[in-house]
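Lab notebook, entry 494. We have the chain sequence and a SMILES string for guanosine-5'-triphosphate, and the next step in the workflow is to get a structural model of the bound complex before anyone spends time on docking refinements. Request logged below.

Task: model protein plus guanosine-5'-triphosphate, output structure tokens.
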Amino acid sequence: MWPGTWRKVLSGLSPVSGAAVRVVKRLYCPAGKRDTIFALSSGHGRCGVAVIRTSGPASGAALRSLTGQQELPRPRAVALRRIHDPSSAETLDRGLVIWFPGPHSFTGEDCSELHVHGGPAVVGGVLQALGHLPGLRPADPGEFTKRAFQNGKLGLTEVEGLGDLIHAETEAQRRQALRQMEGELGQLYQRWSEELTKALAHVEAFIDFSEDDNLEEGVLAGVGAAVQALEEEVRGHLQDGRRGERLRGGVHVVIAGPTNAGKSSLLNLLCQRPAAIVSPVAGTTRDVVESALNIGGYPVVLSDTAGLRETQDAVEREGVSRARERLQRADVVLAVLAAVDVAPEPGCLADALRAILPRRAPCILVLNKADLLEEGCRGALLGACGEGALPPACLLSCKTGEGVDSLLSLLGAQLEQMCGDPLAGSPSLTQARHRLHLTSCLGSLGRYHGYKSLDLVLAAEELRLARRHLGKITGRVSAEEILDIVFRDFCVGK
Ligand SMILES: Nc1nc2c(ncn2[C@@H]2O[C@H](COP(=O)(O)OP(=O)(O)OP(=O)(O)O)[C@@H](O)[C@H]2O)c(=O)[nH]1
Ligand SMILES: [K+]
Ligand SMILES: [Mg+2]
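Result returned:
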């Protein structure tokens, strides 16, 4: 229990910062006994209803104090209550309260929820009242989820899925995040981990008992085959064109081409606002101008870049070098040419394209300013685009809007191919962190084969290491630094 003394001591040291109070409360908290945390879990700012949550052993007492009723509501049922500030007995609001006794709660601890009116004064009053109760302190970012993880309610990949779900901005991102939160990715890694455990058990049995005759023939051959199958599965999972990571972080689409082709006009057309300066002066754009878009449910980070040309102007040269650097990292390039400037010959188009593309990046050829083309040229130009090994192309006019639909459908098809359907097939890995540990896991599996005929003990150790790398993804291997990386991105109240 909290003696009232620490508060008395602190109240003599005015003004007391929230951080100081928190530090003292932490220091005072006896080892193994958890404080109860609280936070506004709905968004900040004026809203219809705000949800305030608590989690920890003092949740029930806090609910009793704030509602002024000894009896707690029925578990997990909504009850209408007056909510008071226990220190002044003033009514703060009338709202809905829910009591979630542990372990059947989000965090696994005793939890409560207060659904109050979303005005800043009401929310501020309730938070202040909670802060005055013994044993309660404001939650750190991600702390509710961290407790859920620590109490075995969620695996680490589920936690990451939950974080992604909160940040999801497009449908495809939401589908992928929900799938991960519901545990499919974690289950896949868990299955691999169990296969490794089995293989390891067999190798250890062989080490210990191979002298005895009662060990089955071919134990090691079986392990070798199992390890090889697992290697293939992990390798296939890694060779997914980074689809899950792309979908999570957004596909980088870069608009590039010679000066005055209409690149900035295209950016503005696609993001439907004047994000970049458009002018008839060649060399207008220098900095990379970015805009986030949702195209057909897929998240896109669209960048406009400086027109590619030789120049004496030092500032423009820097712009061109930034454009080239951005092109190197592009997932998809929209190569923009002014249709009137390119002759309808595949050779000419291919040369113009080579001047833009640094490598064989996925590309869509955009022939802009179609409104300036004479009727007769269109067919010839499009015909030329269909020949040779040119990327898919479309005619466009940023001025009239002609051709936007066909550009969007070409781009949509490209995005779908890159990100895939997040609900189809086996779940994708979504984070660089997963890739890192899976690559290390694969390295250990490879070394197992190397060691198995030389030193079985070392070979077994590699299997143990491989399993450990998988454990780092699912959180079965607990290491504070992994937790910190995962929970860092969470908001307060989650
Ligand atoms: N007729 C016509 N003019 C266009 C079209 N698209 C762009 N323009 C004009 O072409 C000029 C250059 O457009 P920008 O969008 O600034 O071209 P840019 O490729 O970004 O140019 P830099 O940034 O200088 O490399 C402007 O005067 C635009 O109004 C189009 O489809 N038709
Ligand atoms: K321009
Ligand atoms: Mg521009």
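Notes for the group: Residues 259-265, 278-280, 282-285, 307, 368-369, 371-372, 397-399 surround guanosine-5'-triphosphate (ligand 1) (CB under 6 Å). Worth checking against the assay data. Confidence is low (pLDDT under 50) at residues 1-32.
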